[in-house]
Structures are given as C-alpha cells and as structure tokens.
Write a structure and sequence with these properties.
The complex is a heterodimer of chains A (279) and B (221).
Chain A lengths: L1 H28 L10 E5 L2 E2 L3 E3 L5 E2 L1 H12 L7 E5 L5 H7 L4 E2 L7 H4 L3 E9 L1 E6 L15 E5 L3 H10 L4 E5 L2 H9 L5 E5 H8 L8 E3 L7 E7 L5 H14 L2 H10 L18
Parallel strand pairs in A: 1-5, 1-6, 9-10, 9-11
Antiparallel strand pairs in A: 2-3, 3-4, 6-13, 7-13, 8-11, 8-12
Helix pairs in contact in A: 2-8, 2-9
Chain B lengths: L9 H31 L3 H14 L4 H15 L9 H31 L2 H9 L4 H16 L1 H14 L11 H12 L2 H30 L4
The chains are: A alpha/beta (279), B mainly alpha (221).
C-alpha cells in the first residue's frame, strides 16, 4: 500500500515535469519554431525603444535587432532561427562567459574593463552622450548651460557618473531605475533634461507617444563605441566583422539607422570603421 | 583580487543605508504603534482607518511606494519636505516611503503582542478607573512590546534590506553604489558578494543582540 502511494506520487511528479517541459518548449520556440535548422542565441536589450525592444505582441524592434538579424543572416541563420535573450547591462559579460548567448548587441559600449573580459566585434555605431530636452525649451544651448539645471539619468549608468564627475558637476542629478521615469519628469517640468547616449535618446524621442515633445541637444559630450560582444577568443569575431562591413557597404546600415532613429532629427555619425575605436 | 574596490566610497554608501534604516525604524515604530492603538481602540472610524491602512499599504510593492514618493509627491505635487537639492529630497522621500510601508508590519507585530496580554489585565485596569489610553499606555503596551521583540527584529532586518529599493529614486545607499560598480568594473559576482557580505555584517549582529534582548524581556507566563 505504502509502495503504491510512492509510485503514485512519483508518477504525478513525472507527469507534472513532462507537462512543464512541454510548456517551456512552446514558450521558447514561439511562432517561428517550425522553420527548423540550427539556432543562434543573441542577447539584446528588451527595454530600449529604437535600440532593442520587445513589443507587447512579442516582436523585437530596434537598431541593435536589425544589426543582429543582418549579422545572423550572414552567419547562415535565417530570422526564424534566432532566439532573442534579454541582456541587461549588468549581466552581459557573465552571459557571454557562460555561453548563454552566441553574441550580444545591446548598446554595448567598448571599454577597457569590458574588453578584458570579452571580445568585441565592430564597432558598428558611434554614439555620444547627449541630452533630451523639451521641444520648446530654449535655455539649454551649450553643455555649459547644464550646470544649474536638473538632469536625470539611470541609476549607476556611465552617463550619470559622467555628469557628476566631469560634464556638469554643479547640475542637480536625479537618478531613477529607468528612462521612462525620467521622461515623466522632463515632460511635467520637474526635470530639465534626460541624459544618456544620443542613440537611446533618439529612440525614445521617435516613439509615437513622444513625437514632437522632445528634442536632442546635439552636444556630443562623450564617445561611445557600440560593439558586438562575443566570448573571449571566439572565432565569431572575425565573421561578425565581415558581416558588419558588408552591412555598411550594401546600404542596409543606413536604412536601419533611418528607420530606427530618423523621426527624432538625429544626426548620426557615419558608419564607424571596424576596429577603429574613437576615444 | 579585490583591487576593483579602489576609488569607491563603500563605507559612505553603507553609512547612508544605516541612516535610512535607523530613521525609518524610529519613524515606523512610532507610526506603527499609533496604528496598532487605532486598530484595538474603541472608535470605529479609527479602527476602520487602521485596518484599511495596514491592508492597503502592506499589499503594495515597496518599489511602487518609493517611486510614487518621487514621481507623485515630489515631481507632480511639488512636495520637497523642506530640502532644496535632489539628494536631500530623495533621502527624505525614501525615509517617508520606508516608514509608511514598514509601519504596517510593525502595527501587525504589535497587535499580535497585544493579543498575548491576558484579557484580565485590561479588565483590571478598567476596574481601577484607567481610561482607554491609560490602559493601553501603562498596562497593555509595555507587556505587548516585551513579547514582540522577536517579530520586530524580523521587521527591522527586512527594513535594512528593503532600503536597497531607495536606489530606484537615486538615493546613494549601498545598492546604488553596487549598480555603479557593476556598470564600471564588469565583476558582477564578486561585487554582489561584497555587498551581500556588507548587509550580513549589518543584520547578523542586529538579529543576535535583539534575540538576546527579547529573551531577557519576555514575560514568562
């Protein structure tokens, strides 16, 4: 009797495990699961409009997504065989080292500390730290004007640290967990400017709900070289570099920039040369 | 191995955590006691308010409360709590939010303590002519507090760790520094371990000391 109870419990547990895995399988495959073939896993941001965003209906949009899709295609993976994973800023190095993702295109600026841990292909975009201000605000014309203003950025981000240390030490800095909270503040005039990479700002300003409300300062306060991160020593680096070169030469790069940042009147830098990191 | 710690004010950040914890702890002890008084009191309106407050506040995620103090109270309603620059405003807002949240838990811990005091105590107090507030203040609460040191210690430890949520509105406490360090140093695990250790250093002695105090004070029944 006792034995039968154990068997029953075990079979229930087994049944649960089987159904649970079945569910998991459905989730990760999504609607494109039927296309077959080898899969590639790519890390992107899920929460940066214009750069990498997961829309409520489960699609992925943004410049990083376009670049990653193009690169994956050159590596021999069709769009249906890409599995997108969220690569939060703090997790990126670990994800690459563990091999959770094949490569990461997630507004990933190349710097020395990171380059010691992972390899970078590219850069594929030269961004600058900039400010986003209300469209009718004419009091900020120069980075110096920021000194007695109220700025906002994301907690712990490089942009926030730059403001405090170098760019505008006298400015008041409000930090929030996300850019959307900052934008609320800028919109209702509690805060004067949101500061981070101009590509991210352009992505936000291009959103349908914000169109016409904000403008970019155009100050180019720092240089951020966005690269594609791969595992240290990976042979993917050379292949991705070739793919990126092709993307620029066949015009797809320009198209992706226009599509994702265009509406914000964002004057992008020309496509950077592979391996040329602007300090 | 730990050279990534150079150039960061680790102690300063944890000092802000300690200040947040201490101020919110005092605040929520006072407000929580008042709430508990309301919930056991004879006035129906106050009882209703106390019950509603506790049930609403303890069921809202702390992050939402903290972000609301900044976006709602400060930016939309222009409440500055007497400070002028963002860092002071945010610190005070965080103390306010943490106090509002934690006092709901203090109230419930204290109310369970009040329930351990035998009914005869209150009846005897009324019999010698003490009013409700006098009964509560002189007879019930002193005994109730002695029996809830343990549960209140739990609340205090939870509060210490909850202060990390204040980084959501940019208060420069430990979790805030941690985010910045992770961004700069690409050393996720080591940095997290250092900060986890920092919190253990704060909470472990608190737990041990207050447990001892609780045993000393407990009313033997």
């Amino acid at each position: 009797m006792k034995l039968r109870k154990v068997t029953a419990a075990a079979s229930v547990a087994l049944a649960l495990a089987v159904t649970a895995t079945a569910c998991g399988g459905d989730d990760s495959d999504g609607d494109k699961g039927s296309s077959g073939g080898k899969k590639i896993t790519i890390g992107i941001k899920f929460d940066q409009p214009g750069i990498g965003q997961k829309t409520p209906d489960g699609k992925y949009t943004g410049f990083d997504v376009d670049v990653a899709t193009y690169v994956a295609k050159q590596l021999g993976y069709s769009a249906g065989n890409i599995e997108w994973k969220e690569a939060k800023s703090a997790d990126r190095e670990t994800m690459l080292q563990r091999g959770d993702v094949d490569f990461i295109a997630a507004s990933y600026s190349i710097n020395d500390e990171r380059a010691a841990k992972v390899d970078f292909a590219g850069p594929y975009l030269l961004a600058h730290q900039d400010v986003l201000i209300r469209a009718n605000d004419n009091s900020i014309k120069d980075p110096k004007d920021l000194n007695n203003k109220k700025l906002c950025s994301v907690t712990g981000s490089t942009s926030a640290q730059n403001v405090k240390d170098k760019l505008a030490p006298k400015a008041q800095l409000q930090e929030y967990g996300g850019y959307s909270e900052c934008l609320t503040g800028v919109e209702n005039k509690a805060i004067d400017a949101l500061t981070t990479d101009d590509s991210i700002l352009a992505g936000y300003a291009s959103q349908a709900e914000f169109k016409g409300k904000f403008k970019l300062g155009g100050f180019k306060m720092t240089n951020e070289n966005y690269g594609i991160g791969v595992k240290k020593g990976s042979d993917l680096k050379a292949k991705i570099n070739t793919a990126l070169e092709k993307m620029v030469s066949d015009g797809s790069w320009d198209k992706a920039v226009k599509a994702n940042f265009g509406p914000a009147n964002y004057k992008n830098e020309p496509a950077p040369k592979i391996g040329n990191i602007v300090k | 191995m730990f050279d990534f710690l150079e150039g960061y004010d680790l102690l300063g950040a944890f000092w802000v955590t300690v200040k947040l914890t201490a101020l919110s702890a005092v605040g929520s002890l006072i407000w929580g006691t008042l709430l508990a008084g309301m919930r056991v009191g004879p006035v129906p309106v106050m009882r209703g308010f106390g019950t509603a407050y506790v049930n609403i506040v303890r069921n809202i995620p702390l992050t939402i409360i903290i972000v609301f103090t900044s976006l709602g109270l400060n930016q939309t309603m222009n409440i500055t709590l007497g400070a002028t620059d963002f860092s002071a405003i945010n610190f005070r807002l965080a103390v306010l939010g943490l106090t509002a949240y934690t006092s709901a838990f203090v109230c419930e811990a204290l109310r369970s303590g009040i329930n351990t005091v035998p009914l005869g105590q209150a009846e005897a107090a009324r019999a010698i002519g003490l009013s409700f507030t006098q009964t509560l203040r002189l007879v019930i609460l002193p005994q109730a507090f002695r029996s809830v040191v343990g549960p209140l210690t739990n609340v205090l430890i939870a509060l210490t760790k909850n202060t990390t949520v204040a980084s959501a509105i940019g208060v420069a406490e430990a979790a805030y520094l941690m985010k910045g360090m992770i961004e700069n140093e690409a050393q996720l695990l080591l940095i997290s371990a250092v900060f986890a250790f920092g919190f253990i250093v704060l909470t472990l002695p608190t737990g041990l000391i207050l447990n001892w105090v609780g045993k000393k004070l407990a009313v033997k029944r």
